[in-house]
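Below is how a single chain appears once it has passed through the pipeline. First comes the sequence as given, then the structure the pipeline wrote out for it. We keep one example in the README because the format questions we get most often are answered faster by looking than by reading.
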Amino acid sequence: MADVKSRPLSPHLSIYKPTITMTMSIVHRITGIGLYAGTVLLAIWLIAAASGAQAFATVQSFIASPLGRIILLGYTWAIIHHALGGIRHFIWDTGAGLGPERMMLARLTLIGSLVITVGLWLFGYAVR
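Resulting structure:
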């Protein structure tokens, strides 16, 4: 039986360097996890709204706090980034965008999600 310590490491540890597409793939997974947590908070908000004025006021005061706003901002970004990442993967599933343009699509996912998130929040504060 071969000694485990003498076996080589996987090539990915020494050959591949991180790229924007690898990073966006990891971020896509992280935003998917974040969407679970944000959806739980959304459900809590809806349940509080259905439970009465006191419960809703309690939850609303948290959401209106600076920490609540940061969480909402992150949730907004996660939804948009995850959606744009899904569109990018759909483009790849059609066989398009797999050449050098794959890096551009990854950058557009990141830049687009940031621009759309900021735009939505600015619009929200403007109409408020």
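The radius of gyration is 21 Å.

See the next section for the split statistics.
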